[in-house]
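Schema walk-through. Below, the input block comes first and the output block second. Nothing else is stored per chain. Lengths vary across the set, and this one has 347 residues.
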Amino acid sequence: MHEWLPGERADGALEDPARAAVELARFIRALRRVDTTGAHPRPTGARGAPLAELDEGVRRAVADLGDRIDGRATLRSWEESLSAPAWSGKEVWVHGDLLPGNLLVVDGRLSAVIDFGGLNVGDPACDLQPAWHLFAAEGRRRFRGEVGTDDASWLRGRGWALAQAVIAMPYYWDTNPGIVRQSRHALREVLADGATAPVLRRAEPHEADALTALTRRSKAHWGYPPDVLDRWRSLLTVTAESIRDDHVVVAERDGVLLGYYGLRGEAPEGELADLFLDPPVIGTGLGRTLFEHAVASARERGFRSLTWELDPNAEPFYRHLGAERIGGREVAPGRVLPIMRVALAGS
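--- output ---
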């Protein structure tokens, strides 16, 4: 037994994710070949178990999380994994917890797998979790090809990643922000994986309540407590009147609202009134898509520039997209809202 191994967590430390996908797949294939004779009995719901044994826990966690996640999209993905054919082959050894914190990296390369506390014999799909916890789309495809898996196993693996993420979040919400952050990332990857491209369309007045709830979830993503969000209720409320009066565009996938933006003002100067994303799709590129759509819509309306006030947490995102900070407004002692602007070339 080694009490200490050198290295750092795998998330953000890999120099070559494609090489890491190959090396991690090689470890998983080797583990599966180990003789299972004399293996300990697997407890109900333990790593490698049929997904059905986790169903009650997943649904309870989704309910506990409330509007902190997109519960409807999460359950839809979960049910898709549940419907995949069960594993009918030989049960194999699974590590069961191949998350970034259990994968060590030295000099940019995977160096060790640690924490075998979840080791069991069961469905090999359980060890596909790093596809969503560790890799982005290209690395995920490479990992799948290297580890070798069919469509049903891939769906079950995705279900394992989802289950581990949503069950961990309410348990660690107030005690371990690192695990919560990793779990939210994995859930975003799960929900984005294989999803159809979102449709962008004008909002309807009857969607005001749904957009208000989305706005609150999006604001809560930055760690604002419920009492603060309650004080900001009027600022976070979308009304049917504002949808009718402003140019409000929503992003929708399979009937689920994912985000929206709003434009207002008279040419030549426009205002980006809102741009909010549901937390599960933050980091998937949808924010850029909405912003670029807003810029194109502003040009069509004859605007020469867009100006807006924003949450300080969002400033790096807009700077990355080419906006510049032109000022700020103090709204409370120590809290200044940046004011940003983007010039619309070609207007």
